[in-house]
Amino acid sequence: MSKISYDLLEEQELLLGMVSEVIAQDSYDAKEWNRLGDLISSTCSDSDIAFEASLNTFSQLIRKLLIERGKTIEKTFYRSPSSTENRFLPSGSPLDHAYERSIPALEVEKKLKKRLEQIVGWETESIATSSAMGALHLVLSTLCHILRPTSNRPLRLVSAGKYFETSKLLDFFDNELFSTLEVDSIRELGLMDKESVPDILLLEPIVYGHSLSVLNLEDLINSWKQLGCCPRYIIIDTTLSGPGWNTRFFLELLSNINGNPILIEYRSGLKLDQSGLEIANLGIIDIFSIKSSTIQKLDAVSLGKTLRALRGILGLGLRASDLASLDAPFLLSPKWSKIHAARVFRNNKLVAEELGKCTGLVSSVSHPSTAEAKGNAPFVIISLENESLQYHGYLLAALREEIYSTNLQVVHGSSFGFRNTRFESIVPNNSDDVGIFKIAAGAVLGPSLATLLHIMRKLSKGGIEGIRKNYPQIKPLQLP
Questions:
Q1: Which of the listed residues 168, 275, 370, 397 has the most CB atoms within 10 Å of its CB?
Q2: Average pLDDT for residues 396-404, to the nearest whole number?
Q3: CB 15, CB 62: distance < 8 Å
């Protein structure tokens, strides 16, 4: 049996496992889930291509049934529901709220809290929000509220990340009471003296830039040890690392630093934590504080209470329909999230290895697995011999021609972490004629991914002139 055939059988088992866990809830929609389970278990094919297509259809049906759970809640109750009616999630858990914008996410947060390893000496808390950027906005606003900066003593934040939306959000916060500084290299953080240590440090373990560089945690911690202090609040965006981020290791390093630092991790829970099904927008905040900390309002539980209060005021929580759609045992489960993330990381490492051998149109690839400090990421950045938008437009048009004519389970679309593979060209700055090409391999190692790699090798070898010659019928896609 080929590696691809084996992985497709594994995908079938995983889909059946998801469905089986939902069936065990014995909810009002159990009949539909039982029917779907029978379809998945009875499906087989002599063709890997046909088998992969069937499995993709089944994953879409799982998603559809979960989304329908949310629609049922929306159709049944008002945003401000009657206090005389009992409302329940599909699992049977009560759903109690007066206004939807301030609805508590009790069941989701129970799941999130279970993900956290119990680490000796640290107190933990988990909060669910409507998005990762909403989570960061909530954290920064809460710290401003608690720490009460003044013009004589403004809050100072240093960011070593590269995610463009994070940069834009920091611009909104930057003022005389809240100073924000973005640095280009993690090395700059290790060279700070005590007077320049910020109140808040914002990091990305895998830097969301063109190089996808890896944060060297031990070097950073060692520089703080030499200084004898560290930032009071360390905020880490773990979106690209997902369940693969080693919180325990970082906390063990932090335990030996003076100053009782508080670690706040946040990330998008939309992809890697939802088995690539993209059920509901979700931001995840995890807070870690040293149990011996006696400073009022500056422990994990107190911060969690303040964050939830502001979440309700700003309407940055989940909707009732989101809570119902996410109310399936495998969603946000540590076991299922780790399985999905591991498969996504494996396949993106494969893409980086294979396309790293290319010449011609593909000049180089960037992925943490190729760096000296090894890491994982859910996509691969591919540098072209010419990064002009016209070159990107020709490559995208040729890929679409090839993929859609062969009915591959590959999508031209944004983001990452799905079950199937995606590709896109990003335009970081609309005023520049420069693009970034990205392949986000999904969890399934099937014939579609293998064929995409073959197509990329063929297109790269011929270069842009080869594309123009071999695809005279296409026009370059117009990018913003």
A1: 275
A2: 94
A3: yes
Residue that the structure tokens 């680490």 belong to: 119
Query: What is the distance between the alpha carbons of residues 184 and 166, in angstroms, rounded to a whole number?
Result: 14
pLDDT tens per residue, range 64-120:
999 999 999 999 888 888 888 888 999 999 988 888 888 999 999 999 998 887 777
C-alpha angle 91-94-99 in degrees, rounded to nearest 5: 125
Whole-angstrom Cα distance, residue 55 to residue 77?
Answer: 34
Phi, psi for 111 (deg, rounded to 5): -60, -45
In whole angstroms, what separates CA 465 from the centre of its chain? 36
Say whether pLDDT at 255 is over 90: no
The upper half-sphere exposure of residue 242, i.e. CA atoms within 13 Å in the direction of its Cβ, equals 30
User: Which residue in this structure is represented by tokens 């109750």?
Assistant: 77
> Of 147, 225, 206, 135, which is closest to residue 179 (Cα–Cα)?
147
Rounded Cα distance between 311 and 70, Å, is 21
One-letter amino acid of 79: R
Q: Read off the pLDDT of residues 191-223 as tens digits, 9 standing for 90 and up.
A: 566 777 889 999 999 988 888 888 888 888 888
**Residue labelled with tokens 């998945």:** 40
Q: Are 8 and 36 in contact (CB under 8 A)?
A: no
Number of Cα atoms under 13 Å in the Cβ half of residue 53: 9
Which amino acid would we find at residue 360?
Answer: G
Contact predicate 336/102, CB 8 Å: no
Token pair for 285: 């905040």
